[in-house]
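Protocol step 4 of 5: obtain the predicted structure for the target chain.
Materials: sequence only (see below). No template structures provided, no constraints applied. The aim of this step is simply to have a reference model before the mutagenesis design in step 5. Sequence pasted as it appears in the construct record:
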Amino acid sequence: MKLTGSEILVECLKREGVDTVFGYPGGVVLGLYDYLYRQTHLRHVLCRHEQGAMHMAEGYARATGKVGTVLVTSGPGATNTVTGLTDALMDSVPLVVFTGQVPTQLLGNDAFQEADIIGITISCTKYNFLVKRVEDLARTIKEAYHLAASGRPGPVLIDLPKDVTFAQTEFSYPDSVYLRSYNPTIEGNKGQIKKAAKAVRQAKRPVLYTGGGVVASGASAELTRLAGLIRCPVTSTLMGLGGFSGSDPRFLGMLGMHGTYKANMAMYESDLVIAVGARFDDRVTGKVDDFVPNAKIIHIDIDPTSIRKNIRVDIPIVGDVAHVLRTLIEVLEANDEPIYVDAERAAWEARIAELDAEHPLGYTHSDEVIKPQSVVEKLYALTQGRAIVSTDVGQHQMWTAQYYHFESGRDWLTSGGLGTMGYGFPAALGAQAAHPDRLVITVSGDGSFQMNIQELATAVVNDLPVKVVILNNRYLGMVRQWQQLFYEERYSHSYLATTPDFVKVAEAYGALGLRATKPSEVEGVLLAAFRHKGPVVVDILTDPMENVYPMVPAGAANHQMVFCDPDQTPGAGLKQKDGQGAKTPPLPLTGGGARP
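Step 4 output (C-alpha coordinates):
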Protein backbone atom coordinates (compact mmCIF):
# COMPACT_ATOMS: atom_id res chain seq x y z
CA MET A 1 0.00 0.00 0.00
CA LYS A 2 1.30 3.44 -0.91
CA LEU A 3 1.51 6.14 1.74
CA THR A 4 2.42 9.81 1.62
CA GLY A 5 5.55 11.06 3.34
CA SER A 6 3.39 12.51 6.12
CA GLU A 7 1.64 9.18 6.64
CA ILE A 8 4.98 7.36 6.61
CA LEU A 9 6.43 9.65 9.27
CA VAL A 10 3.50 9.14 11.62
CA GLU A 11 3.50 5.39 11.04
CA CYS A 12 7.26 5.24 11.73
CA LEU A 13 6.76 7.12 15.01
CA LYS A 14 4.15 4.54 15.96
CA ARG A 15 6.59 1.69 15.17
CA GLU A 16 9.25 3.40 17.32
CA GLY A 17 6.88 3.58 20.29
CA VAL A 18 6.66 7.37 20.25
CA ASP A 19 3.63 8.57 22.20
CA THR A 20 4.33 12.31 22.49
CA VAL A 21 5.56 14.91 20.01
CA PHE A 22 6.44 18.47 21.02
CA GLY A 23 6.10 21.00 18.24
CA TYR A 24 4.90 24.13 16.50
CA PRO A 25 3.27 24.19 13.04
CA GLY A 26 4.12 26.30 10.02
CA GLY A 27 3.66 26.49 6.28
CA VAL A 28 5.78 23.63 4.96
CA VAL A 29 4.66 21.12 7.62
CA LEU A 30 0.92 21.73 7.29
CA GLY A 31 0.52 18.43 5.47
CA LEU A 32 2.08 16.65 8.43
CA TYR A 33 -0.10 18.52 10.89
CA ASP A 34 -3.19 17.79 8.82
CA TYR A 35 -2.45 14.08 9.11
CA LEU A 36 -1.68 14.41 12.84
CA TYR A 37 -5.16 15.94 13.23
CA ARG A 38 -6.66 12.56 12.33
CA GLN A 39 -4.50 10.50 14.72
CA THR A 40 -5.50 9.28 18.16
CA HIS A 41 -2.43 7.30 19.26
CA LEU A 42 -0.01 10.23 19.14
CA ARG A 43 -0.15 13.15 21.56
CA HIS A 44 1.04 16.49 20.25
CA VAL A 45 2.01 19.17 22.79
CA LEU A 46 1.81 22.60 21.21
CA CYS A 47 4.58 24.77 22.65
CA ARG A 48 4.72 28.56 22.40
CA HIS A 49 8.29 28.69 21.07
CA GLU A 50 10.41 26.09 19.30
CA GLN A 51 13.15 26.37 21.93
CA GLY A 52 10.50 25.45 24.48
CA ALA A 53 9.61 22.38 22.43
CA MET A 54 13.24 21.30 22.40
CA HIS A 55 13.63 21.55 26.16
CA MET A 56 10.28 19.79 26.67
CA ALA A 57 11.55 16.90 24.58
CA GLU A 58 14.78 16.92 26.59
CA GLY A 59 12.85 16.77 29.85
CA TYR A 60 10.70 13.95 28.48
CA ALA A 61 13.80 12.02 27.40
CA ARG A 62 15.68 12.59 30.65
CA ALA A 63 12.70 11.59 32.80
CA THR A 64 11.88 8.44 30.81
CA GLY A 65 15.09 7.24 29.17
CA LYS A 66 13.25 7.27 25.83
CA VAL A 67 13.98 9.37 22.76
CA GLY A 68 12.29 12.77 22.73
CA THR A 69 10.61 13.87 19.50
CA VAL A 70 10.15 17.39 18.09
CA LEU A 71 8.38 18.65 14.96
CA VAL A 72 8.82 22.24 13.71
CA THR A 73 8.57 24.18 10.50
CA SER A 74 11.30 25.58 8.24
CA GLY A 75 13.35 28.77 8.50
CA PRO A 76 13.04 30.38 11.93
CA GLY A 77 11.18 27.34 13.21
CA ALA A 78 14.24 25.25 12.45
CA THR A 79 16.83 27.77 13.60
CA ASN A 80 15.01 28.18 16.91
CA THR A 81 15.95 24.57 17.70
CA VAL A 82 19.70 25.23 17.70
CA THR A 83 20.03 26.04 21.42
CA GLY A 84 18.12 22.89 22.37
CA LEU A 85 20.16 20.77 19.96
CA THR A 86 23.42 22.05 21.43
CA ASP A 87 22.15 21.55 24.96
CA ALA A 88 21.14 17.97 24.16
CA LEU A 89 24.44 17.22 22.45
CA MET A 90 26.52 18.43 25.38
CA ASP A 91 24.38 16.60 27.94
CA SER A 92 23.94 13.41 25.89
CA VAL A 93 20.15 13.60 25.60
CA PRO A 94 18.52 11.43 22.88
CA LEU A 95 16.29 13.46 20.56
CA VAL A 96 14.98 13.19 17.02
CA VAL A 97 14.01 16.57 15.58
CA PHE A 98 11.99 16.87 12.39
CA THR A 99 12.31 20.23 10.65
CA GLY A 100 10.24 21.29 7.67
CA GLN A 101 12.05 22.52 4.58
CA VAL A 102 11.11 24.24 1.33
CA PRO A 103 10.43 21.93 -1.64
CA THR A 104 13.51 20.23 -3.08
CA GLN A 105 13.34 22.22 -6.33
CA LEU A 106 13.69 25.46 -4.31
CA LEU A 107 16.64 24.39 -2.18
CA GLY A 108 19.42 26.95 -2.43
CA ASN A 109 17.17 29.59 -4.04
CA ASP A 110 16.62 31.71 -0.90
CA ALA A 111 12.97 30.76 -0.91
CA PHE A 112 10.61 32.10 1.74
CA GLN A 113 11.55 30.64 5.15
CA GLU A 114 14.44 28.63 3.74
CA ALA A 115 17.41 28.02 6.04
CA ASP A 116 20.29 25.61 5.56
CA ILE A 117 19.53 23.81 8.81
CA ILE A 118 21.75 20.88 7.79
CA GLY A 119 24.75 23.16 7.50
CA ILE A 120 23.78 25.11 10.60
CA THR A 121 23.45 22.03 12.82
CA ILE A 122 26.45 19.95 11.73
CA SER A 123 28.30 20.96 14.89
CA CYS A 124 25.38 20.62 17.31
CA THR A 125 23.87 17.26 16.34
CA LYS A 126 25.10 13.72 16.62
CA TYR A 127 24.06 13.38 12.98
CA ASN A 128 21.65 15.06 10.59
CA PHE A 129 19.80 14.05 7.42
CA LEU A 130 18.24 15.85 4.46
CA VAL A 131 15.63 13.56 2.92
CA LYS A 132 15.23 14.28 -0.80
CA ARG A 133 13.28 11.14 -1.79
CA VAL A 134 10.19 9.83 -0.07
CA GLU A 135 11.53 6.31 -0.71
CA ASP A 136 14.35 7.04 1.78
CA LEU A 137 12.16 8.43 4.55
CA ALA A 138 11.27 5.29 6.54
CA ARG A 139 14.85 4.00 6.57
CA THR A 140 16.16 7.43 7.57
CA ILE A 141 13.77 7.64 10.51
CA LYS A 142 14.81 4.18 11.70
CA GLU A 143 18.47 5.19 11.50
CA ALA A 144 17.79 8.44 13.32
CA TYR A 145 16.17 6.79 16.35
CA HIS A 146 18.93 4.20 16.43
CA LEU A 147 21.64 6.84 16.37
CA ALA A 148 19.94 9.01 18.97
CA ALA A 149 19.49 6.23 21.52
CA SER A 150 22.61 4.11 21.09
CA GLY A 151 26.23 4.69 22.04
CA ARG A 152 26.59 8.08 23.64
CA PRO A 153 23.03 9.41 23.24
CA GLY A 154 22.43 12.66 21.43
CA PRO A 155 20.21 14.69 19.10
CA VAL A 156 19.60 13.73 15.47
CA LEU A 157 17.89 16.06 12.99
CA ILE A 158 15.87 15.12 9.90
CA ASP A 159 15.13 17.90 7.41
CA LEU A 160 11.95 17.25 5.41
CA PRO A 161 11.27 19.18 2.20
CA LYS A 162 7.58 19.89 1.68
CA ASP A 163 7.28 17.86 -1.50
CA VAL A 164 8.71 14.78 0.24
CA THR A 165 5.90 14.89 2.81
CA PHE A 166 3.28 14.89 0.02
CA ALA A 167 4.91 12.34 -2.30
CA GLN A 168 3.80 8.69 -2.16
CA THR A 169 5.66 5.39 -2.04
CA GLU A 170 5.23 1.84 -0.85
CA PHE A 171 5.73 1.75 2.90
CA SER A 172 8.25 -0.64 4.39
CA TYR A 173 9.83 -0.12 7.79
CA PRO A 174 13.06 -2.01 8.59
CA ASP A 175 13.09 -4.15 11.72
CA SER A 176 16.69 -3.22 12.46
CA VAL A 177 19.42 -1.01 11.14
CA TYR A 178 23.09 -1.56 10.46
CA LEU A 179 25.46 1.34 9.83
CA ARG A 180 28.87 0.08 8.81
CA SER A 181 30.74 3.11 10.14
CA TYR A 182 28.82 3.28 13.42
CA ASN A 183 29.50 0.51 15.92
CA PRO A 184 29.58 1.74 19.54
CA THR A 185 31.60 -0.42 21.90
CA ILE A 186 29.32 -1.94 24.53
CA GLU A 187 31.47 -4.54 26.28
CA GLY A 188 34.67 -3.21 27.80
CA ASN A 189 38.04 -4.77 27.05
CA LYS A 190 38.52 -7.68 29.47
CA GLY A 191 42.23 -7.04 29.85
CA GLN A 192 41.67 -3.43 30.82
CA ILE A 193 38.94 -4.43 33.27
CA LYS A 194 41.34 -6.88 34.92
CA LYS A 195 43.89 -4.07 35.24
CA ALA A 196 41.21 -1.92 36.84
CA ALA A 197 40.36 -4.68 39.31
CA LYS A 198 44.03 -4.96 40.27
CA ALA A 199 44.25 -1.20 40.81
CA VAL A 200 41.17 -1.31 43.03
CA ARG A 201 42.75 -4.03 45.20
CA GLN A 202 45.93 -1.99 45.57
CA ALA A 203 44.20 1.28 46.43
CA LYS A 204 44.16 2.68 49.95
CA ARG A 205 42.12 5.82 49.28
CA PRO A 206 39.80 5.17 46.30
CA VAL A 207 37.00 7.48 45.13
CA LEU A 208 34.24 6.76 42.62
CA TYR A 209 33.76 9.87 40.46
CA THR A 210 30.48 9.51 38.58
CA GLY A 211 28.72 11.44 35.82
CA GLY A 212 25.69 11.53 33.60
CA GLY A 213 26.76 8.34 31.84
CA VAL A 214 25.60 6.39 34.90
CA VAL A 215 22.08 7.77 34.43
CA ALA A 216 22.07 7.37 30.65
CA SER A 217 23.22 3.75 30.95
CA GLY A 218 20.79 2.90 33.74
CA ALA A 219 23.75 1.77 35.83
CA SER A 220 22.68 2.97 39.28
CA ALA A 221 22.26 -0.54 40.67
CA GLU A 222 25.69 -1.61 39.42
CA LEU A 223 27.31 1.54 40.80
CA THR A 224 25.71 1.05 44.21
CA ARG A 225 26.82 -2.57 44.28
CA LEU A 226 30.39 -1.68 43.33
CA ALA A 227 30.64 1.08 45.93
CA GLY A 228 29.57 -1.35 48.64
CA LEU A 229 31.78 -4.15 47.36
CA ILE A 230 34.97 -2.08 47.37
CA ARG A 231 33.89 0.09 50.34
CA CYS A 232 34.40 3.29 48.43
CA PRO A 233 33.00 6.83 48.74
CA VAL A 234 31.14 8.28 45.76
CA THR A 235 31.03 11.78 44.34
CA SER A 236 29.11 13.07 41.35
CA THR A 237 29.11 15.72 38.69
CA LEU A 238 26.11 18.02 38.33
CA MET A 239 24.71 15.79 35.57
CA GLY A 240 25.31 12.61 37.52
CA LEU A 241 23.28 13.53 40.60
CA GLY A 242 20.81 10.78 41.47
CA GLY A 243 22.89 8.09 39.76
CA PHE A 244 23.93 7.18 43.32
CA SER A 245 21.56 7.77 46.21
CA GLY A 246 21.97 11.26 47.64
CA SER A 247 21.07 9.95 51.10
CA ASP A 248 23.59 7.10 51.09
CA PRO A 249 26.30 7.57 53.77
CA ARG A 250 28.97 6.91 51.13
CA PHE A 251 27.83 9.87 49.02
CA LEU A 252 30.14 12.88 49.29
CA GLY A 253 27.92 15.27 47.37
CA MET A 254 28.73 17.06 44.15
CA LEU A 255 32.35 17.90 43.33
CA GLY A 256 33.86 20.77 41.40
CA MET A 257 33.45 24.53 41.36
CA HIS A 258 30.52 24.55 43.79
CA GLY A 259 31.02 21.06 45.15
CA THR A 260 31.33 20.06 48.78
CA TYR A 261 34.63 20.40 50.61
CA LYS A 262 34.73 16.71 51.46
CA ALA A 263 34.14 15.72 47.81
CA ASN A 264 36.87 17.96 46.42
CA MET A 265 39.35 17.13 49.16
CA ALA A 266 38.65 13.39 48.95
CA MET A 267 39.45 13.58 45.24
CA TYR A 268 42.60 15.60 45.94
CA GLU A 269 43.87 13.17 48.59
CA SER A 270 42.84 9.96 46.79
CA ASP A 271 45.25 7.43 45.36
CA LEU A 272 42.73 5.95 42.90
CA VAL A 273 39.95 7.72 41.01
CA ILE A 274 37.41 5.49 39.25
CA ALA A 275 35.72 7.80 36.74
CA VAL A 276 32.41 6.34 35.57
CA GLY A 277 30.48 8.00 32.76
CA ALA A 278 32.07 11.39 33.36
CA ARG A 279 34.15 13.55 31.03
CA PHE A 280 36.40 15.60 33.35
CA ASP A 281 34.68 18.88 32.55
CA ASP A 282 36.51 22.09 33.46
CA ARG A 283 33.88 22.88 36.12
CA VAL A 284 34.88 19.60 37.80
CA THR A 285 38.64 19.62 37.46
CA GLY A 286 39.55 23.20 38.31
CA LYS A 287 43.26 23.76 37.70
CA VAL A 288 44.18 20.64 35.75
CA ASP A 289 47.77 20.43 37.01
CA ASP A 290 46.58 20.12 40.63
CA PHE A 291 43.63 17.82 39.99
CA VAL A 292 44.07 14.48 41.82
CA PRO A 293 47.88 14.84 41.72
CA ASN A 294 48.66 11.55 43.50
CA ALA A 295 45.95 9.33 42.06
CA LYS A 296 45.92 6.64 39.43
CA ILE A 297 42.86 7.14 37.19
CA ILE A 298 40.50 4.54 35.72
CA HIS A 299 38.18 6.05 33.14
CA ILE A 300 35.06 4.17 31.98
CA ASP A 301 33.02 5.78 29.19
CA ILE A 302 31.16 4.69 26.07
CA ASP A 303 32.54 7.64 24.12
CA PRO A 304 36.20 7.04 23.26
CA THR A 305 36.69 10.71 22.39
CA SER A 306 35.95 11.67 26.01
CA ILE A 307 38.81 9.56 27.34
CA ARG A 308 42.14 11.37 27.77
CA LYS A 309 40.61 14.50 26.20
CA ASN A 310 41.14 16.68 29.27
CA ILE A 311 43.01 14.55 31.82
CA ARG A 312 45.70 11.87 31.64
CA VAL A 313 44.27 8.49 32.60
CA ASP A 314 46.09 5.28 33.45
CA ILE A 315 43.46 2.65 32.64
CA PRO A 316 41.01 3.66 29.89
CA ILE A 317 37.99 1.40 29.37
CA VAL A 318 35.65 2.09 26.46
CA GLY A 319 32.21 0.57 26.88
CA ASP A 320 28.70 0.96 28.18
CA VAL A 321 28.90 1.88 31.86
CA ALA A 322 26.42 -0.74 33.10
CA HIS A 323 28.11 -3.54 31.15
CA VAL A 324 31.61 -2.55 32.25
CA LEU A 325 30.64 -2.24 35.92
CA ARG A 326 28.97 -5.64 35.87
CA THR A 327 32.09 -7.23 34.42
CA LEU A 328 34.34 -5.41 36.89
CA ILE A 329 32.21 -6.69 39.78
CA GLU A 330 32.41 -10.23 38.39
CA VAL A 331 36.20 -10.04 38.13
CA LEU A 332 36.53 -8.70 41.68
CA GLU A 333 34.22 -11.34 43.13
CA ALA A 334 35.81 -14.20 41.18
CA ASN A 335 39.13 -13.72 42.97
CA ASP A 336 39.52 -15.03 46.52
CA GLU A 337 42.04 -12.29 47.29
CA PRO A 338 40.63 -9.60 49.64
CA ILE A 339 39.42 -6.55 47.76
CA TYR A 340 40.68 -4.13 50.42
CA VAL A 341 42.45 -3.98 53.78
CA ASP A 342 39.96 -3.18 56.55
CA ALA A 343 42.32 -0.89 58.42
CA GLU A 344 43.12 1.13 55.31
CA ARG A 345 39.47 1.62 54.41
CA ALA A 346 38.62 2.51 58.01
CA ALA A 347 41.37 5.14 58.01
CA TRP A 348 40.07 6.57 54.71
CA GLU A 349 36.52 6.75 56.04
CA ALA A 350 37.77 8.47 59.18
CA ARG A 351 39.65 11.02 57.08
CA ILE A 352 36.53 11.80 55.05
CA ALA A 353 34.57 12.28 58.27
CA GLU A 354 37.25 14.77 59.36
CA LEU A 355 36.90 16.64 56.09
CA ASP A 356 33.15 16.83 56.52
CA ALA A 357 33.55 18.21 60.03
CA GLU A 358 36.09 20.81 58.89
CA HIS A 359 33.78 22.50 56.39
CA PRO A 360 30.27 21.06 56.30
CA LEU A 361 27.86 22.41 53.73
CA GLY A 362 25.91 25.21 55.36
CA TYR A 363 24.73 28.80 55.38
CA THR A 364 23.66 31.52 57.82
CA HIS A 365 20.01 31.16 58.78
CA SER A 366 17.74 34.16 59.19
CA ASP A 367 14.31 34.89 60.61
CA GLU A 368 14.13 38.19 58.75
CA VAL A 369 14.97 37.40 55.14
CA ILE A 370 14.36 34.23 53.13
CA LYS A 371 17.57 32.34 52.47
CA PRO A 372 17.40 30.52 49.13
CA GLN A 373 19.14 27.45 50.55
CA SER A 374 16.38 27.12 53.15
CA VAL A 375 13.75 27.01 50.38
CA VAL A 376 15.49 24.07 48.70
CA GLU A 377 15.84 22.32 52.07
CA LYS A 378 12.11 22.85 52.65
CA LEU A 379 11.30 21.47 49.20
CA TYR A 380 13.29 18.35 50.00
CA ALA A 381 11.67 17.94 53.40
CA LEU A 382 8.13 18.36 52.04
CA THR A 383 8.63 16.03 49.07
CA GLN A 384 10.92 13.56 50.89
CA GLY A 385 12.99 13.52 47.71
CA ARG A 386 10.21 11.91 45.67
CA ALA A 387 9.53 14.74 43.19
CA ILE A 388 10.92 15.27 39.72
CA VAL A 389 12.93 18.47 39.99
CA SER A 390 14.22 20.65 37.17
CA THR A 391 16.24 23.83 37.35
CA ASP A 392 17.31 26.63 35.14
CA VAL A 393 20.89 27.89 35.34
CA GLY A 394 22.53 30.10 37.94
CA GLN A 395 22.72 30.31 41.70
CA HIS A 396 19.43 28.49 42.22
CA GLN A 397 20.76 25.57 40.16
CA MET A 398 23.78 25.18 42.43
CA TRP A 399 21.72 25.48 45.62
CA THR A 400 19.36 22.79 44.35
CA ALA A 401 22.28 20.52 43.51
CA GLN A 402 23.73 21.08 46.98
CA TYR A 403 20.65 20.84 49.19
CA TYR A 404 18.19 18.53 47.41
CA HIS A 405 19.23 14.89 47.75
CA PHE A 406 18.26 12.93 44.65
CA GLU A 407 17.48 9.23 44.73
CA SER A 408 17.12 8.79 40.97
CA GLY A 409 18.94 10.41 38.08
CA ARG A 410 15.68 10.41 36.13
CA ASP A 411 14.24 12.81 38.75
CA TRP A 412 16.91 15.46 38.15
CA LEU A 413 16.67 17.68 35.06
CA THR A 414 19.17 20.46 34.49
CA SER A 415 21.35 21.97 31.79
CA GLY A 416 24.96 21.12 32.54
CA GLY A 417 27.29 21.46 29.57
CA LEU A 418 25.68 24.42 27.81
CA GLY A 419 24.22 26.06 30.92
CA THR A 420 21.01 27.16 29.22
CA MET A 421 18.86 29.72 30.99
CA GLY A 422 15.23 28.98 30.13
CA TYR A 423 15.75 25.20 30.17
CA GLY A 424 14.10 24.31 33.46
CA PHE A 425 10.42 25.14 33.02
CA PRO A 426 9.87 23.57 29.58
CA ALA A 427 11.96 20.55 30.63
CA ALA A 428 9.62 20.12 33.59
CA LEU A 429 6.63 20.29 31.24
CA GLY A 430 8.13 17.49 29.17
CA ALA A 431 8.66 15.38 32.28
CA GLN A 432 5.11 16.11 33.42
CA ALA A 433 3.75 15.02 30.04
CA ALA A 434 5.61 11.73 30.50
CA HIS A 435 4.60 11.30 34.15
CA PRO A 436 1.18 12.93 34.61
CA ASP A 437 0.75 11.52 38.13
CA ARG A 438 4.13 12.68 39.49
CA LEU A 439 4.85 15.90 41.35
CA VAL A 440 7.11 17.95 39.07
CA ILE A 441 8.84 21.06 40.39
CA THR A 442 10.91 23.70 38.62
CA VAL A 443 13.33 25.69 40.73
CA SER A 444 14.12 28.82 38.77
CA GLY A 445 15.41 32.36 39.09
CA ASP A 446 13.67 35.56 38.15
CA GLY A 447 16.08 35.92 35.22
CA SER A 448 15.93 32.35 33.91
CA PHE A 449 12.17 31.95 34.20
CA GLN A 450 11.56 34.88 31.88
CA MET A 451 13.58 33.21 29.12
CA ASN A 452 10.68 30.84 28.34
CA ILE A 453 7.89 32.29 30.46
CA GLN A 454 5.50 31.98 27.50
CA GLU A 455 5.31 28.24 28.11
CA LEU A 456 2.92 28.98 30.97
CA ALA A 457 0.31 28.85 28.22
CA THR A 458 1.50 25.36 27.29
CA ALA A 459 1.19 24.27 30.91
CA VAL A 460 -2.34 25.62 31.32
CA VAL A 461 -3.75 24.49 27.95
CA ASN A 462 -2.27 20.99 28.19
CA ASP A 463 -3.11 20.41 31.88
CA LEU A 464 0.53 20.07 32.93
CA PRO A 465 0.45 20.97 36.65
CA VAL A 466 4.14 21.87 37.08
CA LYS A 467 4.97 23.87 40.22
CA VAL A 468 7.43 26.69 39.50
CA VAL A 469 9.39 27.93 42.51
CA ILE A 470 11.17 31.19 41.71
CA LEU A 471 14.05 32.11 44.01
CA ASN A 472 13.60 35.79 43.25
CA ASN A 473 16.62 37.87 44.23
CA ARG A 474 15.99 40.63 41.64
CA TYR A 475 19.38 39.98 40.08
CA LEU A 476 21.09 37.75 37.59
CA GLY A 477 22.43 36.10 40.71
CA MET A 478 25.51 34.28 39.51
CA VAL A 479 26.55 37.24 37.36
CA ARG A 480 26.12 39.56 40.37
CA GLN A 481 28.14 37.18 42.55
CA TRP A 482 31.08 37.24 40.15
CA GLN A 483 30.81 41.01 39.77
CA GLN A 484 30.93 41.36 43.53
CA LEU A 485 33.87 39.03 44.05
CA PHE A 486 35.98 39.69 40.95
CA TYR A 487 34.88 43.03 39.47
CA GLU A 488 35.01 45.27 42.55
CA GLU A 489 31.24 45.29 42.97
CA ARG A 490 30.52 46.96 39.66
CA TYR A 491 27.07 45.47 39.07
CA SER A 492 26.92 46.13 35.35
CA HIS A 493 23.49 45.26 33.95
CA SER A 494 22.82 42.41 36.35
CA TYR A 495 20.03 44.12 38.33
CA LEU A 496 16.56 43.06 37.17
CA ALA A 497 14.38 45.20 39.48
CA THR A 498 10.97 43.96 40.61
CA THR A 499 9.59 43.55 37.09
CA PRO A 500 7.43 41.64 36.41
CA ASP A 501 4.96 40.77 39.13
CA PHE A 502 5.08 36.99 38.70
CA VAL A 503 1.83 36.44 40.59
CA LYS A 504 -0.06 38.63 38.14
CA VAL A 505 1.71 37.05 35.17
CA ALA A 506 0.68 33.58 36.36
CA GLU A 507 -2.91 34.70 36.79
CA ALA A 508 -2.92 36.29 33.32
CA TYR A 509 -2.02 32.89 31.84
CA GLY A 510 -4.68 31.13 33.91
CA ALA A 511 -2.28 29.60 36.44
CA LEU A 512 -2.20 30.10 40.19
CA GLY A 513 0.23 32.69 41.54
CA LEU A 514 1.53 32.65 45.12
CA ARG A 515 4.16 34.72 46.93
CA ALA A 516 6.27 34.51 50.07
CA THR A 517 8.15 37.54 51.38
CA LYS A 518 9.34 36.27 54.76
CA PRO A 519 10.61 32.92 56.10
CA SER A 520 7.43 32.10 58.00
CA GLU A 521 5.42 32.08 54.76
CA VAL A 522 7.55 29.66 52.75
CA GLU A 523 6.15 26.34 53.92
CA GLY A 524 2.58 27.55 53.59
CA VAL A 525 2.87 28.69 49.98
CA LEU A 526 4.73 25.53 48.98
CA LEU A 527 2.07 23.30 50.51
CA ALA A 528 -0.65 25.37 48.83
CA ALA A 529 1.15 24.96 45.51
CA PHE A 530 1.43 21.20 45.94
CA ARG A 531 -2.27 20.89 46.79
CA HIS A 532 -3.38 22.84 43.73
CA LYS A 533 -4.29 20.59 40.80
CA GLY A 534 -3.03 22.92 38.08
CA PRO A 535 0.21 24.78 37.27
CA VAL A 536 1.45 27.16 39.94
CA VAL A 537 4.05 29.93 40.06
CA VAL A 538 5.47 30.55 43.53
CA ASP A 539 7.37 33.82 43.77
CA ILE A 540 9.72 33.65 46.78
CA LEU A 541 11.60 36.86 47.51
CA THR A 542 15.02 35.80 48.74
CA ASP A 543 18.10 37.55 50.10
CA PRO A 544 19.37 39.46 47.05
CA MET A 545 23.01 39.36 48.16
CA GLU A 546 23.33 35.69 49.10
CA ASN A 547 26.22 33.92 47.37
CA VAL A 548 26.82 30.28 46.46
CA TYR A 549 29.51 28.68 48.59
CA PRO A 550 31.76 26.73 48.64
CA MET A 551 33.34 28.09 45.49
CA VAL A 552 36.52 27.34 43.54
CA PRO A 553 37.61 30.61 41.88
CA ALA A 554 38.44 30.47 38.18
CA GLY A 555 41.98 29.23 37.64
CA ALA A 556 42.30 27.79 41.14
CA ALA A 557 42.67 24.15 42.11
CA ASN A 558 39.76 22.33 43.71
CA HIS A 559 41.48 22.15 47.08
CA GLN A 560 41.70 25.97 47.10
CA MET A 561 38.06 26.53 47.95
CA VAL A 562 36.46 29.75 49.19
CA PHE A 563 33.79 29.44 51.86
CA CYS A 564 32.64 33.02 52.39
CA ASP A 565 33.00 36.55 51.11
CA PRO A 566 36.55 37.88 51.60
CA ASP A 567 35.49 40.34 54.32
CA GLN A 568 33.53 37.75 56.27
CA THR A 569 34.42 35.02 58.68
CA PRO A 570 33.27 31.54 57.73
CA GLY A 571 29.57 31.08 58.41
CA ALA A 572 28.95 34.78 59.07
CA GLY A 573 26.95 35.26 55.92
CA LEU A 574 27.34 37.95 53.28
CA LYS A 575 26.90 41.67 53.70
CA GLN A 576 26.24 44.04 50.86
CA LYS A 577 28.79 46.79 50.35
CA ASP A 578 28.22 50.19 48.84
CA GLY A 579 30.77 49.64 46.08
CA GLN A 580 30.96 51.68 42.92
CA GLY A 581 27.96 51.01 40.75
CA ALA A 582 26.19 48.93 43.42
CA LYS A 583 22.42 49.18 43.61
CA THR A 584 20.60 48.85 46.89
CA PRO A 585 18.08 46.03 46.52
CA PRO A 586 14.47 47.27 46.62
CA LEU A 587 12.04 46.47 49.36
CA PRO A 588 10.11 43.24 48.78
CA LEU A 589 6.87 43.36 46.84
CA THR A 590 3.89 43.79 49.12
CA GLY A 591 0.29 42.81 48.83
CA GLY A 592 0.97 39.21 47.83
CA GLY A 593 1.63 37.23 50.94
CA ALA A 594 0.91 33.54 51.30
CA ARG A 595 -2.19 33.52 49.16
CA PRO A 596 -4.24 30.30 49.29
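Step 4 remarks: The chain has three domains: 2-170, 190-358, 372-541. Residues 2-170 form a domain with the Rossmann fold fold (CATH 3.40.50.970).
Proceed to step 5.
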